[in-house]
Design goal:
Largest sheet: 2 strands, antiparallel
Shape: extended
Number of strands: 2
Distance between the termini: 22 Å
Helix content: 25-40%
Low-confidence stretches: 1-13
Structural class: alpha+beta
Mean pLDDT: 74
Number of domains: 1
Radius of gyration: 13 Å
């Protein structure tokens, strides 16, 4: 749960500085813009995290091994 909260904080706080005209830093610290994440959904459609900038995003990373 803490990881998801951290990601949401990164996305929202990074967007705030971006919207204020500042050049946000990219990284995993609070206040930074979340790093770009690219993937493919279950239907095979490609997406990027930046496509959802300004919206609340919940990231759930899991594996099947």
């Amino acid at each position: 749960m803490a990881a998801v909260f951290s990601c949401l904080t990164l996305v929202s706080l990074g967007f705030d500085s971006y919207a204020a005209g500042q050049d946000p830093k990219v990284g995993f610290e609070v206040g930074n813009l979340a790093p770009e994440i690219q993937g493919e959904d279950l239907d095979g459609v490609k997406f990027k995290l930046s496509d959802y900038r300004g919206k609340v995003v919940v990231l759930d990373f899991w594996g099947d091994w």
